[in-house]
Amino acid sequence: MILAIQPEETVRSFVARTLFIKGKHSSEEVFRKFPKNCALRSDIVLIAEMQGWIGCYGFNKILHKHTNYPRDEVFKNIQDISYSRGEYIDDSYCYGSNRTPAGFCPICVADDIKRLGFSFWRRAHCCELKVCAEHNVELVKRCPYCDKPFCQGGHDLNVMWSACEGQHLKGSSVTLNTDPFELKKAQIFGEILSAPCHLSEEAVLAVLDEKVNQDNNLKLRIWNSRYNQPLGYTIKRRLEIVKEARFKNRLPHGETTDFIIQAILGTYEKFSDFVIDVKAYGDETRPIESLWSTYISGHQESTHFVEENYDQGVGVWCCPFPAKDFLRMWDWRPVYYPCCSFERPKRKGHQPRPERVKNAPPGVQRR
Fold it and tell me: What CA–CA distance (Å, rounded) separates 110 from 104?
């Protein structure tokens, strides 16, 4: 019998807990072969399938509910109808590693054991946050008994269910948080992870551009020392890129949302107030789950999407936003689809001829 992954439990916690309970020799091969260093798309898909979550939908469901991936995808370009762009058909992205330090809240652990009989590692506690948003206590990032971190070179995740020096983590002392900003940061981060709808990237940037420009100190704050860029400049530059891309129907490149989160923390006390202002901009707010079945299948002159239909067992191709201009890259495309490609310009010289598609999209299972 396959164990059930718990709400907010990280994928790595689920894998480690399964191996700890069932044993390395009796557990399913999927868990035994799950990589420690870098989990790829194919690894995440297999774990999703073990929970009965199939295809692109299952891949995106586990990313949204059991990783910190929503931090980058809740703020979504209005012309992107996929949840994770083209990552479902690309094995080059890494979804967590045992090098990332984990952490826990002692109160959450004690409550879990009382309620479930065991605890687990929560995704919001396994990142840069320092405080539990629910209990306002400091997260424990190093073992209270031997001072080892919960990552490669220290404890593995099994220490949650075993012990260190004969003592269980549920006995860790509780330290109340005294920094209101760290609590606000944890609360807003938690609300982003559990957001029910995607917020338009353009609306988000427009609202923050107006707010940040009202505070000169915040506007000039360097949000990332690596790039040495003021927060106000970064927001305005990205807003211009997004607006121009929307006008041309050309999906812009993805970008970190760290500066967006910093701007929200600097201008709002509650994430709900920010959401109200974003909705007032007028762009559609789409339910998170509505994009889980769709992925980007290609970036030619326009962005192409495939939506998986699990009732029929087929993938449905679409190009809802044809580009308004061309990059004159017609001859560079390796494959020409005579059934659905845009009409080619009439000109002299070499004309690409139709070729059989070599790398077809993934097959779609039927429910």
Answer: 11
Q: Is 15 exposed, middle or buried (0-12, 13-18, 19+ CB in 10 A)?
A: buried
- Residue for token digits 């320092």? 130
Instruction: Bin 23: left if φ > 0, else alpha if -120 < ψ < 50, else beta.
Output: left
Residue 240 Cα distances to 10, 12, 202, 207, angstroms: 36, 38, 9, 13
- Beta bridge partners, 305, equal 296, 318
Q: Please tell me the distance from the alpha carbon of residue 247 to that of residue 123, in angstroms, as a whole number.
A: 37
Distance CA 230, CA 209 (A): 12
| For the chain, domain boundaries | 11-38+96-171, 197-288
DSSP class of residue 331 equals G
The Cα 193–Cα 55 span in angstroms is 22
Q: Which two tokens stand for residue 82?
A: 């996929």
pLDDT tens-place string over residues 338-356:
555 556 556 666 665 656 5
Q: Which residue type does 57 have?
A: Y
Shortest CA distance to 71 belongs to which of 128, 150, 4, 152?
128
Q: Please give the model's pTM, rounded to 2 decimal places.
A: 0.89
Nearest CA to 169 among 104, 125, 100? 104
